[in-house]
Specification:
36% of the residues lie in helices and 27% in strands. The chain is α+β, with helices and mostly antiparallel strands. Strands 1-2-3-4-5 form a 5-stranded antiparallel β-sheet. The N and C termini lie far apart (64 Å).
Length: 184
């Protein structure tokens, strides 16, 4: 019985490894396409990536990696905040040359569906499906605007019933801006 179970486990492990290896290239291609679409979304249209840089920083005792995509329209920064309600919250934020936010997209989230998952639209302008008049971060400069939730004395309305997610999202945006500012 032990021999049969061992044989089945080894065969299943081998099949899984083979399928993982077989699908690695298509998964990477899909990830690259999603990233390129995200960069175009946060930079407000087609753009050309001129260079890419990875920056590592220690935030709250954790080493985090930020990726900066310099384009012909500005810079897109990929930022992760590990303190979301459900774990990591990874955003891609586009900045123009003045440091104003052009757009954002959420690349990874494990927030509660129907609540924290609303961050993908909540912080947009109301014309683009945003939450309230004071929830949009588009067009604001994190260097001059207080991009924290109003409950904490900031300018931004939190997602209803999702203050932890809102704080995490805004921290990720601020960290992206800090990387942008230092790279400039």
């Amino acid at each position: 019985m032990v021999g049969v179970l061992t044989t089945v486990a080894v065969l299943c492990g081998g099949i899984l490894a083979y399928v993982n290896n077989l699908t690695a290239a298509p998964r990477q291609q899909a990830a690259d396409q999603a990233l390129n679409a995200g960069i175009e979304q946060v930079m407000c249209g087609k753009c050309k990536i001129e260079n890419t840089d990875t920056i590592k920083r220690v935030v709250d005792g954790k080493e985090l990696a930020y990726i900066a995509y310099k384009t012909d329209k500005g810079t897109a920064i990929q930022s992760t905040d590990p303190n979301g309600f459900g774990g990591n919250l990874t955003v891609l934020v586009g900045f123009n040359e003045a440091g104003d936010i052009l757009g954002y997209t959420i690349l990874e989230t494990t927030e509660t569906p129907g609540l924290g998952a609303k961050a993908d639209k909540w912080f947009q302008t109301q014309e683009n499906g945003g939450g309230t008049a004071n929830s949009s971060i588009i067009g604001k400069n994190p260097g001059t605007a207080n991009l924290t939730v109003s409950k904490d004395g900031g300018e931004i309305d939190a997602i209803t019933a999702s203050t932890i997610t809102s704080r995490s999202f805004l921290r990720a945006v601020q960290q992206a801006y800090n990387v942008y500012k230092d790279k400039k």
